[in-house]
Amino acid sequence: MRMEKRITVGGGESRRKRFGALRRKVLRWGALVGLVVLVGWSMATMKHQMRVRQVHLDISRISHAARLFRADFQRCPETIDELVHPSEGLSYLQEVIDPWGNPYRMVCPSLHDETDVQVISNGPDGDPLGRDNISTLYFSEPP
Predict the structure, then answer these.
(1) Are 67 and 74 in contact, with CB atoms under 8 Å apart?
(2) Nearest-angstrom CA–CA distance, 31 and 13
(3) Any idea of the CA torsion for 102, 103, 107, 113, to the nearest 10 degrees?
(4) Domains of the chain by range and CATH?
(5) Which range among 7-11, 13-17, 127-131 shows the weakest confidence by mean pLDDT?
(6) pLDDT tens-digit profile of 40-90?
(7) Inter-residue contact 113 to 70 (CB < 8 Å)
(8) Three-state DSSP state, 66
(9) In the chain, at which residue ranges do the beta strands (DSSP E only) sit?
C-alpha cells in the first residue's frame, strides 16, 4: 500500500477554514459597528427629545411671566426682554434662549385668543418660517 502525499499551496489551510475565519471576523466587526451606530443614533434621539422638553418648559415659564405682567400693568409686554427688564419693579423672568441658542419669539395678544400669549421657538434650524418650529398655545379660561 502506497501513501500519497498531498501538496498544498498557501500554508496548508484549506479554503473552507480560511473563509470561515474571515467570515467570523467580518461578523464580529459588523456587529460591533452596528452596535456603535445604534447607540449613537439612540443618544442623538434622546438629546433631541430632552431639548424639545426644555422648550416646552421655557414656553410655559414665559407664558406665565407674560400673564403676570399683564395682570400687573393691564397690557401685554411688547417683547420678552420687557419681561426680563421691566420699566418698574422686579423682573418676571430671567434671560432665556432656546436649547439651540436662538431667542424665543412672543406674540401678545395671541392670534388665537386675545386674553393669552403665544411663545414660539424657531426650532433646531433657527428659521422663523421653518417646519420644525415649536409653539405651544396656552388658552386661558373664559371670563
Answers:
(1) no
(2) 26
(3) 70
(4) 16-137 (3.30.700.10)
(5) 7-11
(6) 887 877 888 888 888 889 988 998 898 888 888 888 888 888 888 887 878
(7) no
(8) helix
(9) 105-107, 118-121, 134-137
